[in-house]
Fold each of these.
Amino acid sequence: MFLLNALDIDDTNEPLLARCKHIIDANERTNVTHVIMKRGDNALEINNIQYDIEEVDACLDGHIVRLYQDKKHRLYFDTDTENVHIALPVKHQKDTNISTFTFQPKVDLSSGGEHMPTITEKVVGTTFQEHKDYSEYFAIREDIEHGVTSITSVALLIPEPDNPYDPHAVMVVGKLKNGQPHHVGYLQRSEKGGQLQPRIKKPQQATLRILAYSDSGDFNDTYTVTVDVAD
């Protein structure tokens, strides 16, 4: 079970929280924020150590700055508040639904605490592709936003230079729960205001969000992708 505020202590004990935030000496823990990770249905794997995926998702529900691993393989989720969340190693049966990714922190203390710049755009051309119910997508998180189900998933942006209609076209490919890729649509053309299309020169991972308006009647779901960009 993950330990909230380092030792599952009361939130009102701020001095103890501050002490727990630095309970492990920096020389005894390793920054694994940008280590390639494996995520499955049951576990997150970092450096061949597994952590329960539900506990990891609970820890990630906030503005995470960095991830650390100590010599006892405990995983530290350092936040931009006084809270430190810790996940303990577990043993799981091997997952069959695996995705590989690098964690992207929402906030970076080394840049003065400023948010990492991102671009979010609506995916276009979705009505021309085979429709998949939102429940079929691999979900990192599921929320309710203004009464509408919101799914956070992963996508791959793939340039399609052989596209007969647009040699600059970029496909948006999502991941389904069965591990299969699904062509969701395309990035907006640059001449129509798309900012991402001219930036994607090679396959790049993105965050895919699905707003399930189809739950409310005869409406189409909407899809957006978010990509971290350099200044």
Amino acid sequence: MTCRVAMAPDELARHLAGQLIPSGVATVEPLAEGVMNHMYLARTRRSESFVIRIYPAQRRKVARYEPGLIQRLYASGCLVPEIVGHHLPASESAPAWVAYRYIEGVTLARRASALGPREIRNIAAALVENLKTMSRVPIRGFGGLVTYDSADEADAWEFVRRSLAGGIDNAARNGVVDRASVERLQRVLENSRRDVECFDGALAWGDLAPTNILLDREDRLAGLVDFESSFALDGALSAGYFFAMNPGHPLLEALLEAAHAAGFGFQDAKLKLCAVLRASRMAKFAHRSLPIGRPQSPIAILLPGAMQALEELDRHYSTR
């Protein structure tokens, strides 16, 4: 599928919708949810809906693995979108994109205040089943994905060491976290190797978040979206990344209980290390704007759970 390199995102989305949807396009509108990519909702004359995501140039590496990963997850039975097309041009200047069927639903972020304990437990149980299924998808290596079936390091420690060291360096140079936190990160780096070497290498979802969890009209899990931040590291990473951003969310406790009941429990030290890992990886880029131009929030505000986990791990290692 071809397109002109110079197309603006809005124009490209309309062009792609016209080529991808043979039944005819009724409307193409931008979606406000996208903060890392340009996202559009295309509706057809037959009341079908599709999402078109256009990757900014600096997110091109994500386009090398995310569409293929989503296809593998869909084939494995996870509640992820069905992809209808994707393209990674040979030219670095041409835009990469993916299009998939829209999953009807409301985000957990919008419904959370209306949900009771029973609904939260049911959602957590369904999430755990999807995370278990995901963990069985084989990935070569450890760390961030570079293709749909391979990660960027040969062992877990090298990935975590590199991530922590990079976060420490940038935090010290750019002040994205306070000095005390930088010193804690350094101590965690010096003391965490034994725990990291116990990581199981499972594929995990780093974007487990209320905004990426879709519910149907009965408040049941309907779909999971956004798999840019996926890692082959440990099954605890999904919960650890969730904890980093949402330490007090009612879903977290239910998720941990459901995982334990399903034999998929998350060891506390691993979970906290993954929360700190999220902050460290963000610290490498927190002084920059987001790919679509918005400034980023300070790490301590965006990831309060990671700061809590960092303090707890520092105390843990000082007494071990």
Amino acid sequence: MKVFLIPALLFFLGIGEPRAQEGGGDPLSKGVRAAQQKNYPLAYSLFKKALEDNNMNIDLYFNLGQLAVALKKCDEAVIFYSAFLYLSPNSVDAKDASAKISNCEKSLKNAGTISLDSEPQGVEVFINGAIVGKTPIKAKKLAAGTYRVEIDHPDYEFVGHKVKVESGKDAALTEKLSKKKAFGYLVVTTMPEAGVNIFLDDQSYGTSPMKEPLKLETGRYLLKLEMEGYDRWVRYVTIDREKTVKVEAELEKKQ
């Protein structure tokens, strides 16, 4: 696996030579420079800051795990290596990461476990900002302490809690997720161009011409167009997320 931050850390671990690397003022670049200068506590802090900007960076998780072990922060190494394994389970470094997790778990004092589930299942879970898997997560071993647990999915409302893990106990959390409201747009053009009454599910939305697209929750609506002297025009329309439905309707005069 090619890991763009690893050279500085391999040098730290006595395995390789550091490579010159241009950096800017962002936490990631500053962290690389700190690691190259052997200021590993600072590098660790900066890499954690960089994680706030990109919590899907596989390389960053691996390097944070490496540094956490070296700095004897096994409680945090377990989380970072778990994130790495979740995002890259078939990596050539997966075996090493699994071994580091196992060794760290053995060294944890006053450890407990955390179990996380949701309805529906299969929703990604973050612990202290690091992605560790999808629900259900059963009896994950962690050092005793309080953790920031977040359950996140683009289609559901965000859920966040502080969960206390106690020695020898399982902290169990189950969340019933609420569907997030999604919106799309509707544009109705009529002939005659003006004065046609617009109804959606029998609710009035004014008359044509529309000044701007209607923003609607996703779903199916019954569109009715009415104007005195003309036959009623009726159709179903389906509004999809972030999409615009355009309806062109020509009303026929009553005979």
Amino acid sequence: MRIYLATVVPKMKALKAGGIRHGKWHLTCYHEVKRENLWQEFLDFSDAVLVDSGAHGLQRGSRKIEWDDFTEEYADWIVAHDTDKVVGYFEMDVDNIIGIPKVEALRRRLKRKSKKIIEVWHRAYGWKGYVEMLRRNRGRIVGLPVFGSEDIKEEQVILFIQEAWKRNVRIHGLGCTRRRILRKIPFDSVDSSTWYNPVKWGQLQTIPGTIYIKKDTPISSRTALGYRTWLDWQKLYDAKGPLLRNLKEVMTGERVGA
């Protein structure tokens, strides 16, 4: 299981001040790297990355978004900046704002520009829509916002993952790195910005347990501590790869390549 660390781009200066020059897997938003003008530096800092459109976050603001224009801008940026380090680009995740038919139209426009577009399932699609999504994405990744607003029960998530594995599709759990969940649900990959908690809340989530950091600890030190700790989490869950493959074989009845 890969854990992609989010919110790294605006923190790279603090991370480098804390002695960190390179990481493993990261997730960023299109508008984040565009605003910070740090795309190449971010790539140099990473082994592999996922890119979100940022549309889901933008819908919370008061500014009216012209989604057609935003999609074209995002698509053109993908074409101009794609690299082998990018695992995939998430689609326009705003069906709750503009409806499923419009999101599907925007998705088609993105897919005409790139083969790396990652579709995201939502409850409104239903199980039938999920299966259709898997059929379209054999050998690829799909995004699953499994907790919070989607309110999918843990036992249901296992069924979603099992169906995906049967169809040779990988599942990315959006915004989910809760250890209680990751111990029981074998996503192929996940992401979150929890690594930054030492700065926001003063909590360092080490493998042995939670440590509270003194308030007068410099920001760069707290940022680096949080990041280094989550490098350990990345290694731990990546090491579970063989166990994950064995579980796939048990659940699907098919041998999974090493």
